[in-house]
From TrEMBL:
Annotated signal sequence range: none
Protein name listed in UniProt: SLC13 family permease
Classification via Gene3D superfamilies: Regulator of K+ conductance, C-terminal domain
Organism encoding this protein: Aromatoleum petrolei
Transmembrane segments: 46-68, 89-114, 134-158, 170-192, 385-418, 430-448, 468-485, 514-533, 553-573
Superkingdom of origin: Bacteria
UniProt-annotated location(s): Membrane
InterPro entries: Cit_transptr-like_dom, DASS-Related_Transporters, RCK_C, RCK_C_sf
Keyword vocabulary terms for this entry: Membrane, Repeat, Transmembrane, Transmembrane helix, Transport
Membrane disposition: Multi-pass membrane protein
Amino acid sequence: MTPYLVLLSIVALLTLLIRGRTTPAILFTVWAAAYYLLGFVSEREWLAGYTNSALTTLILLLLVSLALERSPLLDRFSDLVLKGGPARAILRLSVVTTLFSAVLNNTAVVGALLGVVSKQRHVAPSKLLIPLSYAAILGGVTTLIGTSTNLVVNSFVIDAGLPALEMFQFSLVGIPLALACIAVIVLCSRLLPAHEPAERESRQSYFLEAQVTPDSPLTGRSIEQNRLRNLDGLFLLELEREGRLISPVGPDEILAEGDILVFTGQVEKVQALQQIPGLQVFGTRADALLGSNLVEVVISNESILPNRTLRDVDFRLQFDAGVVGIRRGDKRLTGQLGRIPLRVGDALLLAVGPDFAQHRNIDRNFHLLDTGVLRPRLTPRQSTLALSGFALAIALSAVGVWPLLNCLLVLLATLLATRILSVSEMRRRFPFDLLVTIGSALAIAKALESSGAAELVADGMRSLFDGHGVLGAFIGVYLITVVLTEVITNNAAAALAFPIALSTARAFDVDPMPFVMAIAYGASAGFLIPFGYQTHLMVMSPGRYRTLDFFRIGLPVSLTYSAAVLLLVPVFFPF
Protein backbone atom coordinates (compact mmCIF):
# COMPACT_ATOMS: atom_id res chain seq x y z
CA MET A 1 0.00 0.00 0.00
CA THR A 2 2.84 2.40 0.91
CA PRO A 3 4.49 2.39 -2.58
CA TYR A 4 1.18 3.28 -4.21
CA LEU A 5 0.53 6.03 -1.67
CA VAL A 6 3.96 7.57 -2.37
CA LEU A 7 3.42 7.32 -6.14
CA LEU A 8 0.02 8.99 -5.78
CA SER A 9 1.63 11.82 -3.80
CA ILE A 10 4.30 12.24 -6.51
CA VAL A 11 1.56 12.56 -9.13
CA ALA A 12 -0.05 15.25 -6.98
CA LEU A 13 3.31 17.02 -6.65
CA LEU A 14 3.85 16.88 -10.41
CA THR A 15 0.36 18.28 -11.02
CA LEU A 16 1.01 21.24 -8.73
CA LEU A 17 4.39 21.87 -10.36
CA ILE A 18 2.80 21.94 -13.81
CA ARG A 19 0.10 24.37 -12.66
CA GLY A 20 2.87 26.68 -11.49
CA ARG A 21 0.89 28.58 -8.86
CA THR A 22 3.22 27.53 -6.04
CA THR A 23 7.01 27.67 -6.25
CA PRO A 24 8.96 24.39 -6.42
CA ALA A 25 10.84 25.36 -3.24
CA ILE A 26 7.64 25.40 -1.19
CA LEU A 27 6.21 22.25 -2.77
CA PHE A 28 9.37 20.17 -2.37
CA THR A 29 9.83 21.36 1.22
CA VAL A 30 6.25 20.46 2.16
CA TRP A 31 6.50 17.02 0.53
CA ALA A 32 9.83 16.24 2.21
CA ALA A 33 8.48 17.30 5.61
CA ALA A 34 5.34 15.22 5.06
CA TYR A 35 7.39 12.13 4.18
CA TYR A 36 9.38 12.60 7.38
CA LEU A 37 6.24 12.99 9.50
CA LEU A 38 4.69 9.90 7.88
CA GLY A 39 7.84 7.89 8.56
CA PHE A 40 8.89 7.38 4.93
CA VAL A 41 12.30 8.91 5.68
CA SER A 42 14.21 9.18 8.93
CA GLU A 43 15.20 12.46 10.55
CA ARG A 44 18.81 11.85 9.53
CA GLU A 45 17.87 11.17 5.88
CA TRP A 46 15.64 14.24 5.76
CA LEU A 47 18.26 16.65 7.12
CA ALA A 48 21.24 15.03 5.37
CA GLY A 49 20.01 16.32 1.99
CA TYR A 50 20.71 19.92 2.97
CA THR A 51 24.35 19.12 3.81
CA ASN A 52 25.15 17.12 0.67
CA SER A 53 28.66 17.98 -0.54
CA ALA A 54 27.62 18.38 -4.18
CA LEU A 55 24.83 20.76 -3.13
CA THR A 56 27.31 22.79 -1.07
CA THR A 57 29.59 22.93 -4.13
CA LEU A 58 26.70 24.20 -6.24
CA ILE A 59 25.90 26.98 -3.74
CA LEU A 60 29.56 28.04 -3.60
CA LEU A 61 29.77 28.05 -7.40
CA LEU A 62 26.72 30.31 -7.67
CA LEU A 63 28.15 32.70 -5.08
CA VAL A 64 31.50 32.89 -6.89
CA SER A 65 29.60 33.51 -10.14
CA LEU A 66 28.20 36.74 -8.64
CA ALA A 67 31.64 38.27 -9.15
CA LEU A 68 32.43 36.59 -12.46
CA GLU A 69 29.25 37.83 -14.14
CA ARG A 70 30.35 41.42 -13.53
CA SER A 71 33.43 40.97 -15.69
CA PRO A 72 33.38 43.21 -18.82
CA LEU A 73 34.74 40.33 -20.88
CA LEU A 74 31.39 39.48 -22.49
CA ASP A 75 30.76 43.12 -23.41
CA ARG A 76 34.08 43.29 -25.23
CA PHE A 77 33.07 40.37 -27.43
CA SER A 78 29.65 41.78 -28.31
CA ASP A 79 30.54 44.13 -31.18
CA LEU A 80 32.86 41.59 -32.76
CA VAL A 81 30.33 38.78 -32.44
CA LEU A 82 27.26 40.60 -33.69
CA LYS A 83 28.64 42.12 -36.89
CA GLY A 84 27.92 40.58 -40.28
CA GLY A 85 24.90 38.77 -41.66
CA PRO A 86 22.35 36.98 -39.44
CA ALA A 87 23.75 33.45 -40.03
CA ARG A 88 27.30 34.48 -39.17
CA ALA A 89 26.15 36.49 -36.16
CA ILE A 90 24.09 33.54 -34.90
CA LEU A 91 27.06 31.20 -35.34
CA ARG A 92 29.52 33.47 -33.56
CA LEU A 93 27.07 34.34 -30.77
CA SER A 94 26.21 30.66 -30.24
CA VAL A 95 29.86 29.60 -30.08
CA VAL A 96 30.84 32.38 -27.65
CA THR A 97 27.80 31.76 -25.45
CA THR A 98 28.46 28.01 -25.42
CA LEU A 99 32.07 28.53 -24.36
CA PHE A 100 31.20 30.90 -21.53
CA SER A 101 28.22 28.83 -20.43
CA ALA A 102 30.45 25.78 -20.03
CA VAL A 103 32.04 27.40 -16.96
CA LEU A 104 29.58 30.10 -15.89
CA ASN A 105 25.98 29.99 -14.74
CA ASN A 106 23.58 29.92 -17.73
CA THR A 107 21.36 32.65 -16.34
CA ALA A 108 24.34 34.91 -15.68
CA VAL A 109 25.65 34.48 -19.25
CA VAL A 110 22.27 35.22 -20.83
CA GLY A 111 21.70 38.11 -18.44
CA ALA A 112 25.06 39.64 -19.32
CA LEU A 113 24.40 39.46 -23.08
CA LEU A 114 20.67 40.13 -23.10
CA GLY A 115 20.85 43.91 -22.95
CA VAL A 116 23.69 44.11 -25.49
CA VAL A 117 21.94 41.84 -28.00
CA SER A 118 18.55 43.53 -27.53
CA LYS A 119 19.84 47.04 -28.14
CA GLN A 120 22.37 46.48 -30.96
CA ARG A 121 21.36 47.33 -34.53
CA HIS A 122 23.53 45.01 -36.61
CA VAL A 123 21.02 42.12 -36.66
CA ALA A 124 17.37 41.92 -35.63
CA PRO A 125 17.37 40.82 -31.94
CA SER A 126 14.58 38.33 -32.68
CA LYS A 127 17.10 36.43 -34.84
CA LEU A 128 19.57 36.19 -31.97
CA LEU A 129 17.84 35.85 -28.60
CA ILE A 130 16.46 32.30 -28.98
CA PRO A 131 19.87 31.08 -30.23
CA LEU A 132 21.41 32.87 -27.23
CA SER A 133 19.17 30.95 -24.83
CA TYR A 134 19.68 27.63 -26.63
CA ALA A 135 23.47 28.07 -26.73
CA ALA A 136 23.50 28.67 -22.98
CA ILE A 137 21.84 25.27 -22.53
CA LEU A 138 24.27 23.59 -24.94
CA GLY A 139 27.30 25.02 -23.19
CA GLY A 140 25.91 23.97 -19.84
CA VAL A 141 25.84 20.26 -20.72
CA THR A 142 29.53 20.14 -21.66
CA THR A 143 30.94 20.29 -18.10
CA LEU A 144 29.96 19.41 -14.56
CA ILE A 145 29.68 23.07 -13.55
CA GLY A 146 28.10 24.32 -16.79
CA THR A 147 24.57 24.14 -15.43
CA SER A 148 23.10 23.74 -11.99
CA THR A 149 21.25 20.66 -13.27
CA ASN A 150 24.49 18.70 -13.66
CA LEU A 151 25.51 19.55 -10.12
CA VAL A 152 22.03 18.65 -8.89
CA VAL A 153 22.34 15.23 -10.58
CA ASN A 154 25.79 14.88 -9.04
CA SER A 155 24.29 15.48 -5.60
CA PHE A 156 21.87 12.58 -6.21
CA VAL A 157 24.74 10.42 -7.45
CA ILE A 158 26.78 11.02 -4.31
CA ASP A 159 23.74 10.53 -2.09
CA ALA A 160 23.12 7.15 -3.77
CA GLY A 161 26.65 6.02 -2.91
CA LEU A 162 27.93 6.14 -6.50
CA PRO A 163 31.27 7.69 -7.56
CA ALA A 164 31.02 11.46 -7.99
CA LEU A 165 30.82 12.79 -11.55
CA GLU A 166 34.00 14.35 -12.93
CA MET A 167 34.48 17.84 -14.34
CA PHE A 168 34.78 16.93 -18.03
CA GLN A 169 32.90 13.64 -17.98
CA PHE A 170 30.02 15.43 -19.65
CA SER A 171 32.25 16.71 -22.47
CA LEU A 172 32.44 13.33 -24.20
CA VAL A 173 28.82 13.64 -25.28
CA GLY A 174 28.28 17.35 -24.62
CA ILE A 175 30.81 18.76 -27.11
CA PRO A 176 29.67 16.84 -30.24
CA LEU A 177 26.07 17.37 -29.12
CA ALA A 178 26.60 21.14 -28.83
CA LEU A 179 28.35 21.35 -32.22
CA ALA A 180 25.55 19.43 -33.94
CA CYS A 181 22.82 21.57 -32.38
CA ILE A 182 24.61 24.85 -33.18
CA ALA A 183 24.82 23.75 -36.81
CA VAL A 184 21.07 23.03 -36.80
CA ILE A 185 20.32 26.43 -35.22
CA VAL A 186 22.29 28.21 -37.97
CA LEU A 187 20.76 26.12 -40.77
CA CYS A 188 17.22 26.65 -39.41
CA SER A 189 17.69 30.34 -38.60
CA ARG A 190 15.16 31.24 -41.30
CA LEU A 191 12.50 29.82 -38.97
CA LEU A 192 13.22 32.59 -36.48
CA PRO A 193 11.01 35.68 -36.70
CA ALA A 194 12.67 38.70 -38.29
CA HIS A 195 11.60 41.91 -36.57
CA GLU A 196 13.84 44.37 -38.34
CA PRO A 197 15.35 47.29 -36.38
CA ALA A 198 13.21 49.87 -38.15
CA GLU A 199 10.10 47.88 -37.42
CA ARG A 200 11.28 47.36 -33.88
CA GLU A 201 11.26 51.07 -33.17
CA SER A 202 7.61 51.34 -34.03
CA ARG A 203 6.36 48.01 -32.69
CA GLN A 204 8.63 46.86 -29.87
CA SER A 205 7.24 49.50 -27.57
CA TYR A 206 6.05 49.62 -24.02
CA PHE A 207 2.42 50.25 -23.19
CA LEU A 208 2.26 53.38 -21.05
CA GLU A 209 -0.63 54.77 -19.07
CA ALA A 210 -1.32 58.33 -17.92
CA GLN A 211 -4.32 59.91 -16.18
CA VAL A 212 -5.85 63.35 -16.61
CA THR A 213 -5.56 65.00 -13.20
CA PRO A 214 -8.21 67.14 -11.45
CA ASP A 215 -8.20 70.75 -12.70
CA SER A 216 -6.01 69.71 -15.63
CA PRO A 217 -5.75 72.24 -18.47
CA LEU A 218 -6.37 69.28 -20.82
CA THR A 219 -10.02 68.86 -19.78
CA GLY A 220 -12.70 70.23 -22.07
CA ARG A 221 -10.34 70.19 -25.03
CA SER A 222 -10.01 67.62 -27.81
CA ILE A 223 -7.14 65.22 -28.42
CA GLU A 224 -6.13 67.31 -31.43
CA GLN A 225 -6.22 70.59 -29.50
CA ASN A 226 -4.07 69.12 -26.73
CA ARG A 227 -1.55 67.86 -29.32
CA LEU A 228 -1.69 64.32 -27.94
CA ARG A 229 -2.18 62.64 -31.28
CA ASN A 230 1.29 63.00 -32.75
CA LEU A 231 3.73 63.03 -29.87
CA ASP A 232 7.35 62.34 -30.79
CA GLY A 233 7.91 58.59 -30.31
CA LEU A 234 4.54 58.03 -28.62
CA PHE A 235 1.18 56.99 -30.05
CA LEU A 236 -2.19 57.24 -28.28
CA LEU A 237 -3.85 53.83 -28.53
CA GLU A 238 -7.01 54.05 -26.43
CA LEU A 239 -8.85 55.94 -23.75
CA GLU A 240 -10.72 54.58 -20.74
CA ARG A 241 -13.48 56.67 -19.18
CA GLU A 242 -15.51 55.44 -16.20
CA GLY A 243 -14.88 51.80 -17.10
CA ARG A 244 -15.72 52.31 -20.79
CA LEU A 245 -12.97 51.73 -23.35
CA ILE A 246 -12.71 54.07 -26.34
CA SER A 247 -10.54 52.59 -29.07
CA PRO A 248 -9.41 53.91 -31.47
CA VAL A 249 -9.36 57.43 -30.08
CA GLY A 250 -10.56 60.01 -32.58
CA PRO A 251 -8.87 63.43 -32.87
CA ASP A 252 -12.13 65.18 -31.86
CA GLU A 253 -12.54 63.21 -28.60
CA ILE A 254 -12.96 65.69 -25.71
CA LEU A 255 -10.94 64.85 -22.60
CA ALA A 256 -12.49 64.78 -19.14
CA GLU A 257 -11.09 64.69 -15.63
CA GLY A 258 -10.01 61.15 -14.67
CA ASP A 259 -9.64 59.90 -18.24
CA ILE A 260 -6.94 57.25 -18.57
CA LEU A 261 -4.85 57.45 -21.74
CA VAL A 262 -2.90 54.42 -22.98
CA PHE A 263 0.12 55.15 -25.18
CA THR A 264 2.60 52.91 -26.93
CA GLY A 265 6.08 54.28 -27.19
CA GLN A 266 9.82 53.92 -27.12
CA VAL A 267 11.71 53.84 -23.87
CA GLU A 268 13.62 57.01 -24.72
CA LYS A 269 10.40 59.01 -25.24
CA VAL A 270 8.65 58.19 -21.96
CA GLN A 271 9.82 61.35 -20.22
CA ALA A 272 7.95 63.40 -22.83
CA LEU A 273 4.73 62.53 -21.00
CA GLN A 274 6.08 64.17 -17.87
CA GLN A 275 6.31 67.48 -19.70
CA ILE A 276 2.56 67.60 -20.41
CA PRO A 277 0.80 69.63 -17.67
CA GLY A 278 -2.17 67.92 -16.06
CA LEU A 279 -1.13 64.40 -17.07
CA GLN A 280 0.09 61.97 -14.43
CA VAL A 281 2.11 58.95 -15.54
CA PHE A 282 0.85 55.65 -14.14
CA GLY A 283 2.87 54.08 -11.33
CA THR A 284 3.34 54.64 -7.64
CA ARG A 285 5.18 57.98 -7.53
CA ALA A 286 6.48 57.31 -11.02
CA ASP A 287 6.31 61.01 -11.85
CA ALA A 288 8.65 61.80 -8.98
CA LEU A 289 11.03 59.07 -10.08
CA LEU A 290 11.18 59.82 -13.80
CA GLY A 291 14.13 62.10 -13.17
CA SER A 292 16.08 59.03 -12.07
CA ASN A 293 17.21 56.10 -14.19
CA LEU A 294 14.71 54.29 -16.35
CA VAL A 295 15.42 50.59 -16.00
CA GLU A 296 14.08 47.72 -18.11
CA VAL A 297 13.45 44.46 -16.26
CA VAL A 298 11.90 41.06 -17.02
CA ILE A 299 9.77 39.31 -14.38
CA SER A 300 11.53 36.12 -13.27
CA ASN A 301 9.96 32.74 -12.57
CA GLU A 302 10.79 33.15 -8.86
CA SER A 303 9.01 36.49 -8.61
CA ILE A 304 6.09 37.22 -6.29
CA LEU A 305 4.44 39.29 -9.05
CA PRO A 306 2.88 36.74 -11.47
CA ASN A 307 -0.94 36.50 -11.23
CA ARG A 308 -1.02 39.81 -9.35
CA THR A 309 -1.87 43.23 -10.78
CA LEU A 310 0.20 46.38 -10.42
CA ARG A 311 -2.50 47.87 -8.23
CA ASP A 312 -2.10 44.93 -5.84
CA VAL A 313 1.61 45.64 -5.39
CA ASP A 314 3.13 48.62 -3.59
CA PHE A 315 6.10 49.01 -5.92
CA ARG A 316 7.35 52.10 -4.15
CA LEU A 317 7.57 50.29 -0.81
CA GLN A 318 8.89 46.95 -2.12
CA PHE A 319 11.33 48.10 -4.80
CA ASP A 320 11.66 51.92 -4.57
CA ALA A 321 10.39 52.10 -8.14
CA GLY A 322 7.36 53.05 -10.16
CA VAL A 323 6.06 51.09 -13.15
CA VAL A 324 5.94 53.32 -16.20
CA GLY A 325 5.23 50.74 -18.91
CA ILE A 326 4.60 47.06 -19.63
CA ARG A 327 5.50 44.89 -22.60
CA ARG A 328 4.39 41.29 -23.19
CA GLY A 329 6.21 39.87 -26.19
CA ASP A 330 4.43 40.96 -29.35
CA LYS A 331 1.00 41.06 -27.72
CA ARG A 332 -1.02 44.24 -27.55
CA LEU A 333 -2.28 44.88 -24.02
CA THR A 334 -5.61 46.55 -23.55
CA GLY A 335 -7.56 48.06 -20.67
CA GLN A 336 -6.10 49.60 -17.53
CA LEU A 337 -2.53 48.43 -17.14
CA GLY A 338 -2.86 48.43 -13.38
CA ARG A 339 -5.57 45.77 -13.59
CA ILE A 340 -3.78 43.37 -15.97
CA PRO A 341 -2.49 40.24 -14.16
CA LEU A 342 1.27 40.05 -14.62
CA ARG A 343 3.03 37.00 -16.06
CA VAL A 344 6.48 35.51 -15.89
CA GLY A 345 8.50 36.99 -18.77
CA ASP A 346 6.64 40.33 -18.88
CA ALA A 347 8.99 43.28 -19.41
CA LEU A 348 8.47 46.30 -17.18
CA LEU A 349 9.87 49.78 -17.58
CA LEU A 350 10.68 51.08 -14.10
CA ALA A 351 11.47 54.58 -12.93
CA VAL A 352 13.78 53.74 -10.05
CA GLY A 353 14.66 55.67 -6.92
CA PRO A 354 18.05 55.98 -5.22
CA ASP A 355 17.48 52.92 -3.00
CA PHE A 356 16.44 50.58 -5.82
CA ALA A 357 19.82 48.83 -5.96
CA GLN A 358 19.83 48.24 -2.19
CA HIS A 359 16.67 46.14 -2.10
CA ARG A 360 17.45 42.47 -1.53
CA ASN A 361 14.46 41.23 -3.52
CA ILE A 362 15.44 42.73 -6.89
CA ASP A 363 17.37 39.73 -8.20
CA ARG A 364 14.69 37.28 -7.10
CA ASN A 365 11.88 39.16 -8.84
CA PHE A 366 13.58 40.53 -11.97
CA HIS A 367 16.16 39.95 -14.66
CA LEU A 368 17.68 43.33 -15.47
CA LEU A 369 18.40 44.17 -19.09
CA ASP A 370 21.12 46.48 -17.82
CA THR A 371 22.84 44.78 -14.88
CA GLY A 372 25.17 47.74 -14.37
CA VAL A 373 22.37 49.49 -12.50
CA LEU A 374 22.78 47.05 -9.60
CA ARG A 375 26.32 45.82 -9.97
CA PRO A 376 29.07 47.99 -11.46
CA ARG A 377 31.50 46.27 -13.79
CA LEU A 378 34.78 44.98 -12.39
CA THR A 379 37.91 46.94 -13.13
CA PRO A 380 40.43 45.25 -15.47
CA ARG A 381 42.58 44.30 -12.47
CA GLN A 382 39.62 42.86 -10.54
CA SER A 383 38.38 41.02 -13.62
CA THR A 384 41.80 39.45 -14.21
CA LEU A 385 42.06 38.35 -10.59
CA ALA A 386 38.55 36.87 -10.49
CA LEU A 387 38.78 35.05 -13.83
CA SER A 388 42.31 33.72 -13.29
CA GLY A 389 41.37 32.53 -9.81
CA PHE A 390 38.33 30.74 -11.18
CA ALA A 391 40.37 29.15 -14.01
CA LEU A 392 42.95 27.96 -11.48
CA ALA A 393 40.21 26.45 -9.29
CA ILE A 394 38.75 24.55 -12.24
CA ALA A 395 42.19 23.35 -13.36
CA LEU A 396 43.19 22.10 -9.89
CA SER A 397 39.90 20.27 -9.59
CA ALA A 398 40.04 18.80 -13.10
CA VAL A 399 43.48 17.25 -12.65
CA GLY A 400 42.60 15.93 -9.20
CA VAL A 401 45.02 18.08 -7.19
CA TRP A 402 42.32 19.54 -4.93
CA PRO A 403 38.56 18.97 -4.64
CA LEU A 404 36.36 21.58 -6.30
CA LEU A 405 34.65 22.32 -2.98
CA ASN A 406 37.99 23.30 -1.41
CA CYS A 407 39.01 25.37 -4.44
CA LEU A 408 35.76 27.32 -4.43
CA LEU A 409 35.99 27.97 -0.68
CA VAL A 410 39.45 29.52 -1.06
CA LEU A 411 38.37 31.49 -4.15
CA LEU A 412 35.28 32.84 -2.36
CA ALA A 413 37.41 33.92 0.60
CA THR A 414 39.83 35.65 -1.79
CA LEU A 415 37.00 37.51 -3.55
CA LEU A 416 35.67 38.70 -0.20
CA ALA A 417 39.12 39.71 1.07
CA THR A 418 39.83 41.77 -2.06
CA ARG A 419 36.30 43.30 -1.91
CA ILE A 420 35.49 42.08 -5.41
CA LEU A 421 32.50 40.42 -3.77
CA SER A 422 30.65 41.78 -0.76
CA VAL A 423 28.79 40.04 2.03
CA SER A 424 25.73 42.20 1.35
CA GLU A 425 25.58 41.06 -2.29
CA MET A 426 25.97 37.43 -1.22
CA ARG A 427 23.17 37.87 1.31
CA ARG A 428 20.93 39.55 -1.26
CA ARG A 429 21.44 36.91 -3.92
CA PHE A 430 21.92 33.77 -1.85
CA PRO A 431 20.13 30.92 -3.74
CA PHE A 432 17.97 29.90 -0.79
CA ASP A 433 15.18 28.51 -2.98
CA LEU A 434 17.61 26.23 -4.80
CA LEU A 435 19.09 25.04 -1.51
CA VAL A 436 15.76 24.01 -0.01
CA THR A 437 14.48 22.59 -3.32
CA ILE A 438 17.43 20.26 -3.87
CA GLY A 439 17.81 19.39 -0.19
CA SER A 440 14.13 18.45 -0.04
CA ALA A 441 14.35 16.62 -3.38
CA LEU A 442 17.05 14.37 -1.97
CA ALA A 443 14.70 13.42 0.89
CA ILE A 444 11.90 12.77 -1.62
CA ALA A 445 14.23 10.54 -3.64
CA LYS A 446 15.01 8.59 -0.45
CA ALA A 447 11.29 8.14 0.20
CA LEU A 448 10.72 6.88 -3.34
CA GLU A 449 13.50 4.35 -2.92
CA SER A 450 12.84 3.18 0.65
CA SER A 451 9.07 2.87 0.17
CA GLY A 452 9.48 0.68 -2.92
CA ALA A 453 7.75 3.22 -5.17
CA ALA A 454 10.81 3.68 -7.39
CA GLU A 455 11.21 -0.09 -7.70
CA LEU A 456 7.54 -0.35 -8.64
CA VAL A 457 8.03 2.16 -11.46
CA ALA A 458 11.21 0.36 -12.54
CA ASP A 459 9.31 -2.93 -12.74
CA GLY A 460 6.73 -1.16 -14.87
CA MET A 461 9.48 0.17 -17.12
CA ARG A 462 10.94 -3.31 -17.49
CA SER A 463 7.52 -4.73 -18.41
CA LEU A 464 6.79 -1.86 -20.78
CA PHE A 465 10.07 -2.34 -22.65
CA ASP A 466 10.04 -6.13 -22.47
CA GLY A 467 11.54 -7.29 -25.74
CA HIS A 468 13.42 -4.03 -26.25
CA GLY A 469 15.93 -4.72 -23.49
CA VAL A 470 17.95 -2.25 -21.48
CA LEU A 471 18.35 0.11 -24.47
CA GLY A 472 14.57 0.51 -24.66
CA ALA A 473 14.42 1.28 -20.94
CA PHE A 474 17.26 3.79 -21.34
CA ILE A 475 15.34 5.58 -24.11
CA GLY A 476 12.19 5.50 -21.99
CA VAL A 477 13.92 7.10 -18.99
CA TYR A 478 15.39 9.81 -21.22
CA LEU A 479 12.03 10.61 -22.85
CA ILE A 480 10.28 10.77 -19.47
CA THR A 481 12.89 13.27 -18.27
CA VAL A 482 12.55 15.38 -21.42
CA VAL A 483 8.77 15.57 -21.03
CA LEU A 484 9.14 16.54 -17.36
CA THR A 485 11.67 19.28 -18.08
CA GLU A 486 9.39 20.79 -20.74
CA VAL A 487 6.46 21.12 -18.33
CA ILE A 488 8.25 21.82 -15.02
CA THR A 489 11.66 23.23 -14.12
CA ASN A 490 14.82 21.37 -15.15
CA ASN A 491 16.04 20.81 -11.59
CA ALA A 492 12.63 19.51 -10.50
CA ALA A 493 12.59 17.15 -13.50
CA ALA A 494 15.99 15.75 -12.51
CA ALA A 495 14.85 15.31 -8.92
CA LEU A 496 11.73 13.35 -9.87
CA ALA A 497 13.35 11.24 -12.61
CA PHE A 498 16.60 10.26 -10.88
CA PRO A 499 15.23 7.63 -8.43
CA ILE A 500 13.27 6.04 -11.30
CA ALA A 501 16.40 5.90 -13.46
CA LEU A 502 18.51 4.40 -10.70
CA SER A 503 15.92 1.74 -9.86
CA THR A 504 15.51 0.90 -13.55
CA ALA A 505 19.28 0.36 -13.92
CA ARG A 506 19.24 -1.92 -10.88
CA ALA A 507 16.23 -3.80 -12.21
CA PHE A 508 18.18 -4.61 -15.38
CA ASP A 509 21.34 -5.24 -13.31
CA VAL A 510 23.46 -2.87 -15.44
CA ASP A 511 25.81 0.03 -14.77
CA PRO A 512 23.65 3.00 -13.69
CA MET A 513 25.93 5.58 -15.35
CA PRO A 514 24.13 5.61 -18.76
CA PHE A 515 20.84 6.22 -16.95
CA VAL A 516 22.42 8.95 -14.81
CA MET A 517 23.62 10.67 -17.97
CA ALA A 518 20.18 10.27 -19.55
CA ILE A 519 18.76 12.22 -16.61
CA ALA A 520 21.47 14.91 -16.77
CA TYR A 521 21.11 15.52 -20.51
CA GLY A 522 17.34 15.02 -20.54
CA ALA A 523 16.77 17.53 -17.74
CA SER A 524 18.50 20.20 -19.85
CA ALA A 525 16.60 19.40 -23.05
CA GLY A 526 14.05 22.18 -22.72
CA PHE A 527 13.78 23.68 -26.21
CA LEU A 528 10.09 23.52 -27.16
CA ILE A 529 8.17 25.39 -24.46
CA PRO A 530 9.52 28.69 -23.12
CA PHE A 531 7.95 28.37 -19.67
CA GLY A 532 10.08 25.41 -18.56
CA TYR A 533 13.49 27.07 -18.74
CA GLN A 534 14.53 30.32 -17.07
CA THR A 535 16.68 31.74 -19.89
CA HIS A 536 13.81 31.26 -22.37
CA LEU A 537 11.59 33.45 -20.20
CA MET A 538 14.36 36.05 -20.04
CA VAL A 539 14.50 36.44 -23.84
CA MET A 540 10.81 35.99 -24.64
CA SER A 541 9.61 39.55 -24.14
CA PRO A 542 12.74 41.39 -25.43
CA GLY A 543 12.57 39.21 -28.56
CA ARG A 544 8.77 39.65 -28.89
CA TYR A 545 8.45 35.90 -29.29
CA ARG A 546 5.38 33.73 -29.22
CA THR A 547 5.35 30.17 -27.90
CA LEU A 548 5.10 28.98 -31.51
CA ASP A 549 8.44 30.64 -32.32
CA PHE A 550 10.18 28.45 -29.74
CA PHE A 551 8.43 25.34 -31.02
CA ARG A 552 9.32 25.97 -34.68
CA ILE A 553 13.05 26.40 -34.12
CA GLY A 554 13.15 24.20 -31.02
CA LEU A 555 11.75 21.07 -32.66
CA PRO A 556 14.71 20.40 -35.02
CA VAL A 557 17.13 21.37 -32.24
CA SER A 558 15.39 19.04 -29.76
CA LEU A 559 15.37 16.15 -32.23
CA THR A 560 19.07 16.64 -32.99
CA TYR A 561 19.90 16.94 -29.29
CA SER A 562 17.96 13.79 -28.41
CA ALA A 563 19.44 11.79 -31.28
CA ALA A 564 22.95 12.76 -30.18
CA VAL A 565 22.26 11.80 -26.56
CA LEU A 566 20.67 8.45 -27.41
CA LEU A 567 23.44 7.54 -29.86
CA LEU A 568 26.48 8.78 -27.95
CA VAL A 569 25.72 8.03 -24.30
CA PRO A 570 25.72 4.21 -24.77
CA VAL A 571 29.01 4.54 -26.68
CA PHE A 572 30.89 6.52 -24.03
CA PHE A 573 29.00 5.07 -21.03
CA PRO A 574 28.26 1.42 -21.91
CA PHE A 575 25.70 -0.61 -20.02
